[in-house]
Write a structure and sequence with these properties.
Number of helices: 13
CATH superfamily of the largest domain: Spore Coat Polysaccharide Biosynthesis Protein SpsA, Chain A
Order of helices and strands: EHEHEHEEHEEHEHHHEHHHHH
Shape: globular
Radius of gyration: 21 Å
Number of strands: 9
Distance between the termini: 48 Å
Number of domains: 2
CATH class of the largest domain: Alpha Beta
CATH architecture of the largest domain: Alpha-Beta Complex
CATH topology of the largest domain: Spore Coat Polysaccharide Biosynthesis Protein SpsA, Chain A
Mean pLDDT: 90
Low-confidence stretches: none
Length: 313
């Protein structure tokens, strides 16, 4: 098998259909497989995947988890099934735009044996369908910039990698064992440790942004659980670079960030007491945090943000 494409999904049946169709519509001279990891969706995803499997029995592999386990676990278990020499990735709500994308990228890797990670350009697309081109800085991708979150538009969706690079850099069992909450940034950090990358300057992928993310935590408990797992994952990653002084983990910084997120949620919910509590724990001194000192300033700040359209309810 020349290429495996990994798509992970949870309760996005409409968007998933578009993602699968754009992959199956690729024009190639080689065989490929599409592996869809279904994280126990409840919205008709299983029925959609069954219809695709009936039509493409030799091309589509479905791995359905018995219980909802999170994107890190879902992604890792799908990758474990991959038989391809090369791997490509696509989020269920995004899509590829060039029907020759896979052929172009495979041809490049076939003729450049020294390259083990290849990426292209793409677009961001808002809920109105308006596209903005991705603009990469000159030093892209830079491991340390990635670690600091300053280069966060580099995504698995624009990549094709040799499976041997993933096998060398990624312990997929750890993704499952530790229930990593994401699969994108952390994977790229680990791949860049050994990557010999190259770039094709052509837009091949659209990143769709919707007003509300399905992964956004809805309660304080969910925020704490999600970001504590993210902190554990970040510590795990830093331990993978013991000789790099720029790849470090700070528990104090992590706790401040969690309380910053909790303060944001409290503002969205109009919960003055929690906003005051979390803001104090974060130690931040921005105007938003100063406004938690009294009930009146808290609600005035909320009103001002809502009038400016920057506080989602």
């Amino acid at each position: 098998m020349k290429l495996s494409i990994i798509i992970c999904t949870y309760n996005r049946v409409k968007e998933l259909k578009r993602a699968i169709e754009c992959v199956l519509g690729q024009k190639t001279s080689f065989d490929f497989e599409v592996i869809v990891g279904n994280d126990c969706s409840t919205d008709g995803t299983a029925e959609l995947l069954a219809s695709f499997q009936a039509k493409y029995p030799d091309s589509l592999v479905v791995n359905t988890l018995e219980k909802n386990s999170g994107v890190g676990t879902n992604w890792a278990k799908a990758v474990m099934l991959a038989q391809g020499e090369y791997l490509a990735f696509l989020d269920d709500d995004d899509y590829w735009t060039d029907e020759n994308r896979m052929q172009i990228m495979v041809d490049y890797l076939e003729t450049h044996p020294d390259v083990n990670l290849l990426f292209t350009n793409g677009y961001f697309e808002n809920e109105k369908g308006l596209r903005t081109p991705i603009v990469y800085p000159d030093n892209y991708p830079d491991l340390h910039q990635m670690w600091q979150g300053k280069q966060n538009c580099f995504s698995l969706n624009v990549m094709m990698v040799r499976k041997s690079l993933v096998d060398e850099c990624i312990n997929l069992e750890d993704y499952v064992r530790h229930r990593f909450p994401i699969q994108d940034w952390n994977t790229i950090i680990l791949l860049l440790k050994k990557a010999k990358f190259s770039f094709i300057d052509m837009p091949t992928c659209v990143f769709s942004f919707t007003p509300a993310s399905l992964s956004r935590p809805k309660s304080y408990e969910q925020v704490i659980e999600k970001y504590e797992r993210e902190a554990f994952m970040t510590k795990y990653l830093s331990d993978c670079f013991p000789d790099d002084p720029q790849i470090t983990f700070s528990e104090a910084d992590s706790n401040r960030y969690i309380n910053h997120i909790l303060t944001t949620l409290a503002y969205r919910r109009g919960d003055y007491q929690k906003a005051k509590e979390f803001s104090k724990l974060s130690g931040e001194t921005a105007l938003r945090d100063k406004c938690t000192r009294t009930w009146i300033t808290f609600h005035l700040f909320r009103l001002a943000k809502r009038l400016r359209g920057k506080l989602a309810e």
